[in-house]
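Input:
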Amino acid sequence: MAQPFNPSVPIYLQLCERIKNRIIRGEIGIGERLPSVRELAIDAAVNPNTVQRAYRELEETGIVEKKRGQGTFVTEKPAVLQRMREELKTSHIKLFVSEMREMGYSEREMLDGLKDFLTDKEEKE
Amino acid sequence: MAQPFNPSVPIYLQLCERIKNRIIRGEIGIGERLPSVRELAIDAAVNPNTVQRAYRELEETGIVEKKRGQGTFVTEKPAVLQRMREELKTSHIKLFVSEMREMGYSEREMLDGLKDFLTDKEEKE
Amino acid sequence: MAQPFNPSVPIYLQLCERIKNRIIRGEIGIGERLPSVRELAIDAAVNPNTVQRAYRELEETGIVEKKRGQGTFVTEKPAVLQRMREELKTSHIKLFVSEMREMGYSEREMLDGLKDFLTDKEEKE
Amino acid sequence: MAQPFNPSVPIYLQLCERIKNRIIRGEIGIGERLPSVRELAIDAAVNPNTVQRAYRELEETGIVEKKRGQGTFVTEKPAVLQRMREELKTSHIKLFVSEMREMGYSEREMLDGLKDFLTDKEEKE
DNA sequence: GTGGTCTAGACCACA
DNA sequence: GTGGTCTAGACCACC
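Output:
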């Protein structure tokens, strides 16, 4: 979490992304407690209000739940996590497709290329 | 070409990439002449030696050919271009797969996700 | 009864309202004895004269009756209680209607809205 | 807007309520511009950040839309306004019903009482 | 001019 | 301790 921030995009959004990624990647488990607002603020070297805003944003998407006087926790609802996971997947794929299209590759090439790449890896391993 | 360079990777390699991309994308056609070393040096705000090295690198891969006293040209051999195109495609796919794996997605999810995404787009359009 | 008083309306009137509400709500039953003037004065932290005035006011409306040397009692006449109940109901409805009108709602909306709300609650329960 | 705030409920929520009421009441028309963050901050004697939070809250409910460099505007979508109006109506009715129930009145009494009250008013007028 | 973000630091309610 | 709210004042991007 000591990584620098891209100054051209709001810090609280970058914090959201980092946390969301860690949750979806499973680094922070279901129902697990996130660092407190103050802890993360110190860790990320930002103002507590900025962390609070990120946590608030995450709570609105439903991936996180706050408990008064206890802390902030990853939601216990697997459905929400699943939805987030799907959304993140689609957004990565979307980016990949737009880059490939931008390079002039057809959808056939993307699909077959991906299939071949994964198949070849299998054979090698 | 006035984009800044990533200081952590050799500029001549970045030049190679940019030129290769433009060729594969078709911005610079088959058999077409590339800008002269001096032109590109000024345009990219780098030392002519750096451009020279990039051109030499590209020539070694076979994607461009130098003609004494005339300049540097995109190869006329479609097979080479085709190979380059394939290599570039594979490297992009490789990056995509490693990122997705990094995020914890299975190969099934990548393939199906890509297929679904492309199919859905078709339906919408 | 330890609730604070609204300083902009006479305390004795507020006492009247509170007592009337408790009687109509059935907290103080028909024919039952009210707390003595002194008791209520201590309990509500007001001057006994204020309680006295409230009780006199209530007696004039007929909802309570004083018995010399015994105390103050809720009237035994159901008709009076019924009338009070109706009056209180109407005053609440009046307030509701004026608020809703204030907000720009039509009488149709009030009636249908109330009917729908009560019907929906039934279905859910 | 110079009314005092209830210190036991967040100012930004009270601001939201006041603005929502004014919009639903029609005091601020469809598509109309709201006071700027700074204006309202001065007018309501609160910090601009507090107003901003209220506006943000309203934007999330969809009743308001922000336009960069231009200001904050009441949404042009009648459906959203209609929905807000319905929600507000239901919440008022809910409060009324719970108060009446609390006083010991039956649903019959509420409905008939309201109907009678509105009918009587008609006759008088 | 508009809203958007961020900081620093305050006080609060809840547990 | 936790998060929730608020203030004061800064700088930014957009129009």
